[in-house]
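User: I'll paste a sequence; please echo it back and then give the predicted structure.

Assistant: Echoing your sequence first, then the prediction.
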Amino acid sequence: MRTLIIAGIIIIVGLIVISQGLYVVDETEQVIITRFGEVQSVKTKPGLNVKAPFVDTVVRFDKRLLRIDADPETMRDANKENLSIDSYARYRIIDPVQFRKTLLTESNARSRLGDIVNATLRERIALRTRPEIIGARPILDPTGNPVVDDEGLPLIEGTESRTELLAEVLSGVQARVNAREQTIQLTVPEPGGALEGFQFRIDATVINVGNMRIIAGPEGEGTPGVDVEIRSFSEADGMLTLGTQAEESLDAGDSFTIQFFVPRDEPFGIEIIDVRIKRADFPDTVTPSIYTRMRAERNRIATKFRAEGDEQDLQIRAGADKERDIILAEADKTANQVRGQGEADAIRILAEALEEDPEFFSFRRSLEAYKVFLNQRTTVILSSEADIFKFLQGPGEGVANTN
């Protein structure tokens, strides 16, 4: 009995040791094995693996594409008008050791990367107008005026400006993920604001030169944007050449800020795959006024349609009344012609009949007279010798005296 108990204990302990010494890597995971906080190994291939029981810890990270839903933020465009931007990004963990060292968890990564996405979006949106952010522009006629439809609204055509914006944002986010931002503030050196060809050296390793830009400085009334421009940058000697926008002038002492990126001491260990804008809308504070303006515009269009409809109604009714009057006049004319022709034919036929048989005409006139006075309640005393009664005695007797 005692032997069985000892054997059972040994089996249980063995099972515990085995369960602690074995672990499975899923095909969607990548695993770091740590011992007292120190990384011992990294496993990226799926399958069953062995670790030191009790002392080694398994830290799992997803190796699929992960999504970052940045918090919606209100951002200003080039015209200083606010837009509520809701965006998201996708990334992949390519170095789990470095990811664990800098970001620790996927939750921390979502928060940190969301801030980077919004910061980059804010910078790029500040350089564009609202139609460029949406990805559209008004259609212009040869004279440069907007083309409008029948309702008086401007016609819009799609452009690639939204795609270009997102490409710049993606490049900027990748630069911030793989590098850290640095800024240098400079001052216009010469009286009169001469800056064309001005050079200075950047004593740092600049990466992603395409993201080097002027982020603050004087803005004149001419060309939109900061008046200072980057003309060129030589990566070999770190010399940056500056100039001034066309039709702009600077004053000595004006300051401006240059932004660029240098390598991070501790990279994040991730790869940004894509950045997209889910929604670019007006802020909630101005939405009621926008809806009011939209309703007013639609009421204007509806009023215009009603007025045009009333005008067409009057035109159609006037045309119909005119056609009716014409048809009635033509009908009356035709009826009078037919009636006159009928009466003429009746008189002609009657005259012809009278000429052919005067006795029949006298007989017919007598019958008509009988019809008139014999049906009346009037007492008429006539001689039996009256001409009118001759037809009652014989049809041919009253011919000579009948009128």
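Residues 99 and 268 are 5 Å apart (CA to CA). The radius of gyration is 52 Å.
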